[in-house]
Amino acid sequence: MQDPASRTFMRAAMRAPYLARDEEHALALRWREHRDQQALHRMTSAHMRLVISMAGKFRYFGLPMSDLIQEGNVGLLEAAARFEPAREVRFSTYATWWIRASMQDYILCNWSIVRGGTSSAQKALFFNLRRLRMRISSGRETMTADELHRHISDALGVSQADVALMDARLSGPDASLNAPVSNEDGASERMDFLVSEAPLPDAAAEEIIDVERRARWLDEALGSLNERELKIIRERRLRDSGATLESLGANLGISKERVRQIESRALAKLRGALVRSDPDMAAFAV
């Protein structure tokens, strides 16, 4: 229900006189060339009924009409700032696009606590889904949800997955995670039933520190190996797909048994270096 001030404003806006083309052109020139505030006021006042009319088209999104009108007025002022009288276009035709864009941005930001898509395709889907769904499904009682989504996808040039996701979002209101839920244990909140399998922040930080420390110890231990030992360890132990003894032997010009012996000796040297750094790292070289 509108408050008295809003009703008074809307009645005054609807009573504002229309502007003839020549008068509108003259006012636009005065504003653009001389920044005449009185000319701007007359132009915008004469077109406030356009703002109110367009706000009514968006009322089914459940947002206050007064807020929609305010946002539309912002778009109207933006249109006045950018309007070029020399193009011989009526101001209402030009302003319509700015008014609509301003209202749509406001709706996208405030309709839900979850921010929706901001691309042109996502905006078209958000504002046209209900209308297209009613038009396509009219008289087709046997149409499945997938068929309906496919028709809407083709009409708007978006993926069926995006159509299905937006349809689900528009089908129900947002639910607060702090909303109470009754169960056999008493009153709880929705958040109590959202269990994360991820480690706690302190455990995650500890793991990162440990990994960095072990990597530094391993790098220092690798410095104790000679060039051939280091090559064998890197190829055999430090790659996702370890090289075979045969391939390494062929590459180094030695037998695979010799490669195995060098690898065992290198692992022993690594183990010793790691143990000297930290006894708990002995298993890391195995």
The Cα radius of gyration reads: 35 Å
How far apart lie the N and C ends? 76 Å
**Would you tell me which CATH topology of the largest domain applies?**
Four Helix Bundle (Hemerythrin (Met), subunit A)
In the sheet with the most strands, the strands line up as 1-2
Helical fraction equals 55-70%
Largest sheet: 2 strands, antiparallel
The total count of helices amounts to: 13
Strand content: under 5%
Instruction: Give the count of structural domains.
Output: 3
| Secondary structure category | mainly alpha
Overall pLDDT level: 82
Instruction: Report the count of strand segments.
Output: 2
**Helix and strand pattern:** HHHHHHHHHEEHHHH
Gross geometry: elongated
CATH class categorisation of the largest domain: Mainly Alpha
Secondary-structure arrangement, i.e. CATH architecture of the largest domain:
Up-down Bundle
Parts with pLDDT < 50 across at least 5 consecutive residues: none
